[in-house]
User: Which sequence fits this backbone?
């Protein structure tokens, strides 16, 4: 089944404790991206990647890192999480931008 | 830069009512336009899309027409069901592959 898989689905952590949210796709898509969803703000792009070893900042990159060492994986790294990073996070992938995107099921992160 | 404005919710309807969610956009060039749907507790699913002016996207009884002259992409459904209760997002994609989303509209359909 073609899909984007994120883990974990739920995560509660403390301020400053490094964490990684994994994202993997099995569709051989070139493009991958991370979004955060907050009430009243819709989804905002954090980082995106056009291909292996090619990443760029989205609209809200502060406090996040990503890497794209292999085509299928695009992990999101929070080196020192803060409470304002409490949010619902989605990973997405696409073969070509204009054809739309496949989203993962989301990761609900709470930073206390 | 690109931006999407969609009508604020929440919207509450009775079953079989007509649904319209307004969406307007600002973009450079010729963006592709999308409607995504998020059912409770789930991720986003692509509902429909249109890639050029006057295109009509349709799926599951929903329709939206790409209107370049009014920079709009309004979502419509003639007869909603309880199962259509969800959050609906309008979005656009320019040539650089970035998706820009509206704030989302929560729709609740009552039996």
Assistant:
């Amino acid at each position: 089944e073609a899909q984007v898989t994120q883990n974990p689905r739920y995560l509660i952590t403390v301020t400053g404790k490094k964490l990684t949210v994994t994202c993997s796709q099995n569709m051989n898509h070139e493009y991958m991206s991370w979004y955060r969803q907050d009430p009243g703000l819709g989804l905002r792009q954090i980082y995106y990647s056009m291909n292996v070893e090619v990443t760029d900042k989205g609209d809200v990159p502060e406090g996040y890192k990503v890497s794209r060492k292999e085509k299928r994986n695009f992990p999101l790294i929070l080196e020192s999480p803060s409470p304002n990073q409490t949010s619902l996070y989605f990973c997405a992938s696409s073969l070509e931008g204009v054809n739309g995107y496949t989203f993962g099921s989301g990761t609900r992160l709470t930073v206390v | 830069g690109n931006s999407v404005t969609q009508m604020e919710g929440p919207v509450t309807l009775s079953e079989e009512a007509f649904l319209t969610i307004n969406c307007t956009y600002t973009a450079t060039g010729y963006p592709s336009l999308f409607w995504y749907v998020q059912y409770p507790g789930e991720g986003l699913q692509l509902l429909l899309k249109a890639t050029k002016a006057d295109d009509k996207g349709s799926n599951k009884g929903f329709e939206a027409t790409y209107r370049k002259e009014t920079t709009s992409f309004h979502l419509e459904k003639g007869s909603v069901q309880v199962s259509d209760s969800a959050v609906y997002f309008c979005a656009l994609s320019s040539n650089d592959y970035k998706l820009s989303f509206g704030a989302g509209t929560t729709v609740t359909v009552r039996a």
Notes: Chain B has no helices and twelve strands. The interface with chain A takes residues 4, 32, 34, 36, 42-46, 49, 51, 89, 91, 93, 95-104 of chain B (CB under 8 Å). Chain B has a mean pLDDT of 93.
